[in-house]
Every structure is written in C-alpha cells, then in structure tokens.
Amino acid sequence: MVGVNRQPLIAGNWKMNLDHLQAVAFVQKLDWSLKDAKHDAGTVEVAVFPPFTDLRTVQILLDQDKIEFALGAQDLSTHDSGAYTGEISGAFLKKLNASYVIIGHSERRDYHAETDEVVAAKVQAALKHGLVPVICVGETLEQREQSGPTAVSVGQLEVALEGVAAGAEIVVAYEPVWAIGTGQVASPEQAQEVCAALRAVVADKLGQDAADRTRILYGGSVKSGNIASFMREPDVDGALVGGASLLVDEFAAIIRYQKHVGV
Ligand code: 13P
Fold first, then answer.
1. Which of 49, 131, 141, 245 qualifies as a FRET site for 92, CA 20 to 30 Å off?
2. In what helix (H) or strand (E) does residue 240 lie, and over which residues does it extend?
C-alpha cells in the first residue's frame, strides 16, 4: 500500500507520440472513459506528459472541460532563455500551467548523452521555475549484473539531488532500462527493493520528512494486468507508463487499479 500521506500518481509519458489533434481526441476519450466508470478523481493523481507541440492545446482542453489531469513536459533546458536553438525553458512550461517535467529519462541519457550532471542542472532549472521534477533513474541489465540492483539508481539520484532544498517537491521514477518498452517487466519485489533504496537516498539528502512525502514511481512495461501488484509495495507510490498510456482503455484501467483488483 502506498504510504498514508502520499497520493498515488499515475503518469503517462507519451514520448514522441500523438500530435496535438490526436492529443485532444485522446484526452477527451480518457476523461469520458473515467467519468463513465464513475472514477473518483481524488483517489489517484493522473498526469499526462505530451510532446511540447501538444502542451498548449492540452492545457486549454483540460481547462475548458475541467478535466483534473496534471500536465507535464518530457524535458526542459538547463537555461532560462537565450541563444539555445531548439531548447525549451522551464519558464515557458510554467506559463502553460505545467506542473511536472520528466528529467533524465533513459532515452535522453542514451540518445542525447545526458550525464548525471546535466540531469542535476535540469532538476535545478525545474525547481527554479516552480515545476516538480520527475527524476528518472535506472540500470541496464549489464549494470544490474555488474553492480547489483540498486547501485546505479542510487548513484544517479544522489547526483540529481545535489543542492536540492529539503522542502522541495520532487518525484522519483525508477525505470530499469531493461524493462522499458520490452514487455520484460520487473517483479514487484525488484521494484520495491530499488524504490526503498531510493527513498533512503531522499532521506539522506533531504531528510526524513522529504522521504516520507516524496512519491517514488515504478516505470517499465506497466500494464493494467500488473499495476496492482506494484501498488501493493510499500515504497512504490505510482507508475510512469509509456506504451500503455497511449491506449485509452488500458490507461484508464491502470488509473482505476484500486477498483479492478483489490489492493
Ligand atoms: P513502457 O511503459 O512503454 O515500458 O515505457 C516506460 C517508460 O519509459 C515511461 O517513461
């Protein structure tokens, strides 16, 4: 069970999928599906992370239709403004009422050479602009074999939290690289082991209060059929969902995990 003071967070990382027109249709259908099922919006926080080009459209839709999903971006610049072609400032995201920003996703670390230091600078940029960073960490299979299940994620989070104030709101996502988009999901016990180690890092760096209130998510091949098993673990407070967050019925079922399977 999620800790008593932590509201579960189900986050959909769309990655580079759904243009702004598809985004409208998707968000409306998801909202209808949850309302049809009489889902109680207060039980679980839902956040969607569309591509940058969709953000304004989704913001307006959420606002006009009074849809209670939080909005997040998938990345941000370390800079505030200036000659950085192609970059997006956290200040711009805040203006769009974005609440969250994903930082350090393994796809950014791998394909865009983002180091732990860049991730740490992006965490600072997010907090500076009033955005909650969703800090992603996780090991490859090779790293797991070499250094065990927790060392890589713990090391990545330690650097990311350098200089973060004790009172800052952050979210941590444990996403083992070998489980992302592979269908090779981690076991609930594996997720719990790493999430507990990450909570200890938060306690060490930001204090016990922060560790108690910070939500730690699991991500990697989450589906409606396995979400409840993760949510039963004491240190797993939600999920960062990729592929399954693009399917209306499947994502709605993940959000409604408390109903379709007893937790
Ligand atoms: P999948 O759910 O497609 O495995 O992706 C997980 C992920 O990378 C979410 O950020």
1. 245
2. strand 238-241
For each of the domains in the chain, give its residue range(s) and CATH number, in order of start. Answer: 9-260 (3.20.20.70)
Q: 15-56 pLDDT, tens per residue?
A: 999 999 999 999 999 999 999 999 998 899 999 999 999 999
Other residues' Cβ atoms within 10 Å of the Cβ of residue 208:
12
Degrees, nearest 5: CA angle 223-224-229 = 85
Name the pTM for this structure: 0.97
Please count the helices (runs of H) and the strands (runs of E) in the chain. 12, 8
- The residue nearest atom 7 of ligand 1, judged by CA position, is 242
In the 8-state DSSP scheme, what is residue 243?
G
Q: Residue 168 and residue 135: Cα distance in Å, rounded?
A: 13
Measured from the CB, is residue 2 less than 6 Å from ligand 1?
A: no
